Amino acid sequence: MSTVQVQNDQFYQAVTYVFKSWTALKLAVEMQWGGIDSEDKRDWFVDVVVEYFGKHGKETYEEDVESILQQVMADEFNTLLEDDSAYQVSKHLIKLYAECIEGNYSSVDLLRSRHTTSDDGENVNVQMIDAMDTSEDISSSNQNKMDSSKKEPIIDDEGFQLVTKRRK
């Protein structure tokens, strides 16, 4: 196998691991926000991103990749990203691509080793390395604070959940 093919294969695997661990996309697939073929859409999404990097090479910019990520999430999964995750993922993908074309697969190997399968065959959430680690730590501590203040949902006689306004 040629060096270029190995680089492409490694990058393809990296994008796959990143997408399977990206919380927004993972939820969209699990909840089938893209329909019953959400997993196929995720796989197609990987192909789109890898192809984009293949066409643009080192001339790939974070904002452009972020725009693609946001557009596909909106169009295919009916999901508007308001959490800066698309930008973080785009930075991570650009870093991985640069490493792959240099023949450095250590980050891909790390993603691969972190990407384990649980007993029931579902993918375990893989934390992204790089700047994602610190932002996840911050968001998880904020989430714990929010979880403690959540109230139980109110369900009426017909089984519908009462929606209440959030107070600011």
Automatic annotation (TrEMBL):
Keyword set, alphabetical order: rRNA processing
A Pfam family: WGG
Polar residues: compositionally biased ranges: 137-146
Chain segments carrying region Disordered: 133-168
GO-annotated biological processes: rRNA processing
Family according to the record: Belongs to the TSR2 family.
Classification via PANTHER family: PRE-RRNA-PROCESSING PROTEIN TSR2 HOMOLOG
Name of the protein: 1711_t:CDS:1
Organism whose genome encodes this protein: Dentiscutata erythropus
